[in-house]
Alpha N-terminal protein methyltransferase 1
Amino acid sequence: MPTSSAAPDSHINHEAAIAYWTKTEPTVNGVLGGFPQVSRVDLQGSRNFVAKLRRLSKPSRADQKLSRAVDCGAGIGRITDGFLSEIAEKVDIVEPVPSFTDQIQTRGDTLGEIYNVGLEAWFPDRDGLGPYDLIWNQWCVGQLTDTQLVAYLRRLPPVLTPGGWIVVKENLSNDSGDEDIYDDTDSSVTRTDGKFRSLFHEAGLKIVATEAAKGMPKDLFPVRIYALQPQ
Ligand SMILES: C[S@@+](CC[C@H](N)C(=O)[O-])C[C@H]1O[C@@H](n2cnc3c(N)ncnc32)[C@H](O)[C@@H]1O
């Protein structure tokens, strides 16, 4: 952990991050940092959260499958296989590490396109991708600097279907001084709830639903899920 007063995200180094993830075993244990048991409760929490979003949307979208979703920073496709492929006809993948995407499997023919790039280099708006009913970002946006994250989020509304959702599900910093925390293991930052809210606002997004993830081990960072739409 650096001791300088530089902003935590200024230490992010994409090459170091990719080197770390490339040498990580391409399994649920690997992408969840040695806590594979968290996956089941995580996926169930996400399923419940999206079911609520869909019930509350007008007109209700609870009955039909979503046309297209995208799993961003997808790793080995844990979320795609365990949840997104249940609720969407097609799921695209954005993930920079090929040894992870090589492992992706889904039921039937739900797997769409695979983009082997980091989110900072994914330009769905410029490349005419989507449109997406659901853009899922979990345990990966800490790999981007604040500036990159805002720029990335700004690229999403043009590829979001009307009434669709951008979901961000991430660890929250529990720093006693309410600061973001840099982690040099995977060269990422863990942000505070306040930082997330201010970056979403800066990106022109509003929070339409948010909740703390339930059932996570108490000795890990708290996890929060946010559903976002254009302001
Ligand atoms: C903790 S894992 C989470 C994987 C998956 N979202 C999940 O929950 O199972 C972090 C993922 O972020 C990916 N990643 C690293 N740098 C990234 C970047 N710049 N943009 C998007 N994803 C990145 C890693 O390769 C890894 O797959």
